[in-house]
Design a protein that fits this description.
The complex is a heterodimer of chains A (about 70) and B (about 525). Chain A is built from 2 helices and no strands. With about 70 residues, chain A is an all-alpha fold. Chain A has a domain of about 45 residues. The N terminus of chain A is likely disordered. Chain B has one domain: Up-down Bundle (Sodium/glucose cotransporter). Chain B has a two-stranded antiparallel ribbon. The chains are: A mainly alpha (about 70), B mainly alpha (about 525). At the A-B interface, helix 1 and helix 2 of A face helix 5, helix 10, helix 11, helix 13 and helix 14 of B.
């Protein structure tokens, strides 16, 4: 990407963290199983719902770490 | 039944009243500009934006169709969850750039941005038409949501549907984006309430989550279809992943999503919402599981219309008055996205067709007037669509819509980060991607619903001569073709020294925030 030097204000190494909640929910071998169940819910469903927490935690963290001083 | 209808009608009318009052909410000096009518004054804070975008993306149709899909096919229908998890981290850094550049240059639509960035009115027109074509069937499908509820209550005939949409059209005309923003509060509060009650109350009635899933497993094991089951199998995993990824890439290319984003007050509102919007994804995941509860409860849809499944489940398990509340939640849930989508489509027409090709010196007031009328036309079109043509056609079109809107990714999404592409390259890529997408979809048959063409979005790789049962999301393949052609055509155009359009944006424009002297959001967009 050809970004000139002025194009710096959104850049932060912390942004790379955002790749985690993008990549992990797409790895089907991680969760494509019935056992272990949680409250009777198969792994496939409860783990994918749990990824929502991963997503929220990551975006919140990146937002806080990269907030601009006003 | 009567209790249900009365509660449904009362809540529906109450919300309609809100829609008309909305014009006075946050008292704009003058509604006669697209920034006010079409973007709510570009002033929405975190809460309003959360309700607005949430109500906009997670539509009534989603709430009836996703559990219907899970009911019919099982695990593959659950793609909606990874899709709506990955989308927010994916677009966070993209949307803030779009917000900034749009505010500096007074842009209203994604096509406006393409016009400014690549200096090509042809490319902007293609993006605008793609947006309108992808949005129209989506609006029509919201009617399918209302229709499913009405059908379950035993209300037949077209008149109630026409009345519902006429009310919607009237208050959108009057209040613009403020109407759905205000109504979204009521809609989502109702939906959250209904779903929380449903996921606690229904499994208890059915003997716990374990027996719900076991019933679903038993049903899928008994069917001869190879693709269903409560887990994925070796042939549909790639489809699951590419559909989730492709849908996530497409979501914020839809004009109505962009409308919600641009209406927010500053960049932090958008960033904070990337953490808050997944609450709706949780809701959607739980709603998807209602499909299994319907299996366990032995619910069958009315006729072959699987969209009536969830309304019928509610009808069977809830007391009458609460069923009325649940139905109202779905009915009102259709109004919010339908209003925002029609506003977004109308803005595209006004800014990128009317202003570009018919009246270059259109004033703010003229733009707002054209948009208001266009929003009416769009809604009348949607009603006619549903009444005159088989609703299945809308569902097919919406499937196509997701594939074609994805073809604007190189111009809009990548365009926000790089000006490397040549405008001719992007146009060539768009043509190639659209062509590929339509050909692929045309060749997907679905024996389950007797469709020889446009059966689903899962393209069997076997048709490309590969010896495999694996399927892949058609939109994803089309996007790859689009990108490859865009890159090659850009290289050719550069080699031939073909004239490229001027870039009206500066690198700094992509970082501007509220309070920046360049952000004068109510200025007339003279730079485009």
């Amino acid at each position: 990407m050809t970004t000139p030097r002025t194009d710096r204000s959104d850049r932060s190494p912390w942004n790379w963290l955002l790749l985690l909640p993008i990549a992990i929910p797409l790895l089907t071998p991680l969760y494509n199983a019935d056992e272990p169940r949680l409250f009777g819910i198969p792994l496939f469903y409860w783990l994918q719902l749990a990824f929502i927490i991963l997503g929220v935690a990551t975006t919140t963290l990146v937002y806080r770490l990269t907030r601009r001083a006003r | 039944m009567t209790t249900e209808i009365v509660i449904f009608a009362v809540l529906f009318l109450l919300v309609s009243g809100l829609g008309f009052v909305a014009a006075r909410w946050r008292r704009p000096g003058d509604l006669a500009s697209l920034h006010e009518w079409g973007l709510g004054g570009r002033s929405f804070g975190s809460w309003v934006t959360w309700f607005l975008i949430g109500g906009d993306l997670y539509t009534a149709y989603t709430f009836v169709a996703v559990p219907a899909l899970v009911f019919g096919a099982g695990a593959t229908g659950f793609f909606a969850v990874p899709y709506t998890v990955i989308v927010y981290p994916m677009v966070m850094l993209v949307l803030i750039r779009l917000w900034s550049v749009s505010h500096v240059h007074g842009l209203v639509t994604p096509a406006d941005f393409v016009r400014a960035r690549f200096g090509s009115s042809t490319l902007a027109l293609l993006v605008a038409i793609t947006g309108i074509v992808a949005t129209m069937p989506y609006i029509a499908l919201q009617l399918v949501g209302i229709e499913a509820v009405l059908k379950t209550m035993g209300v037949t005939g077209d008149l109630p549907l026409i009345i519902a949409f006429a009310i919607l059209a009237a208050y959108t005309y009057q209040s613009g984006l403020r109407a759905p923003a205000l109504i979204a509060f009521v809609k989502d509060s109702l939906i959250y309430l209904v779903i929380l009650v449903a996921i606690i109350y229904i499994p208890v009635k059915l003997g716990g989550w374990g027996s719900v899933f076991d019933a679903a497993k038993a049903k899928f094991d008994a069917t001869p279809a190879p693709g269903d089951g409560i887990l994925l199998n070796s042939s549909n995993q790639l489809q699951y992943v590419t559909l989730a990824l492709g849908s996530a890439l497409a979501l914020f290319l839809y004009p109505h999503s962009v409308t919600g984003v641009l209406a927010s007050r500053d960049r932090n509102v958008i960033k904070r919402n990337m953490s808050a919007l997944p609450a709706y994804s949780l809701l959607l995941g739980l709603i998807a599981l209602l499909g299994y509860m319907a299996i366990a409860a032995g619910i069958t849809p009315i006729g072959k219309d699987t969209n009536t499944l969830i309304p019928k489940l509610f009808d069977a398990v809830f007391p009458d008055w609460f069923t009325g509340v649940a139905f109202a939640a779905i009915g009102i849930g259709a109004l919010v996205p339908a209003a925002i989508m029609s506003i977004a489509a109308a803005n595209l027409f006004t800014r990128n067709i009317y202003r570009e090709y018919f009246k270059r010196d259109a004033t703010d007031a003229q733009e707002a007037r054209v948009s208001k009328i266009a929003s009416l036309v769009v809604k009348v079109g949607a009603v006619l669509f549903i009444l005159l043509i088989d609703p299945q056609f809308s569902i097919d079109l919406q499937l196509i819509g997701g594939v074609i809107i994805l073809q604007t990714l190189p111009s809009v999404g990548l365009g926000l980060f790089t000006r490397w592409f040549h405008r001719a390259g992007l146009i060539a890529g768009w043509i190639a991607g659209m062509g590929t997408g339509l050909v692929l979809l045309y060749n997907i048959a679905n024996p389950a619903n007797n469709h020889a063409h446009f059966g689903s979005s899962a393209f069997p790789l076997k048709q490309l001569g590969l010896d495999t049962k694996i399927t892949i999301y058609a939109g994803f393949l089309a996007l790859i073709v689009n990108l490859v052609v865009a890159v090659l055509a850009t290289l050719v155009a550069r080699a031939m020294k073909a004239a490229d359009g001027p870039d009206a944006t500066q690198p700094d424009d992509y970082h501007a925030d509220q309070g920046d002297p360049r952000v004068h959001d109510l200025e007339v967009a003279s730079s485009t």
